[in-house]
Amino acid sequence: MIDSRVLLTFLSYIEPLPRKTQPGNVFEWTPSQAEELQLHAIAALSILLPQSLNEYFEYHVGTRLLLFYEWTINEGKNELFCF
Length: 83
Description:
Blueprint: H1 6-12, H2 31-48, H3 53-58, H4 61-78
C-alpha cells in the first residue's frame, strides 16, 4: 500500500482548512462536500490503518488526526471557514 500512496491520499482530505489551492485545480468543493469527503476519508482510514502500521508511523498519522480533531473542535469558536 505504501507504493500506491493510498493513505497519503486519504490523509490529504483530513487536513485542516483552509486548504492551499493546487495549481491547475479548477474545481472547488462546497463546505458540505468537503465535510462529506472528510468523513469518508476518516472511515476509510479506520479500516486501512490497522493493516498498515508501518505507514501509520511513517506518515505521522496520529499527529495529523490530532491536528484535524483540534481544528474541528476550534472551528466553531473562531467562525472562520474559508474555501
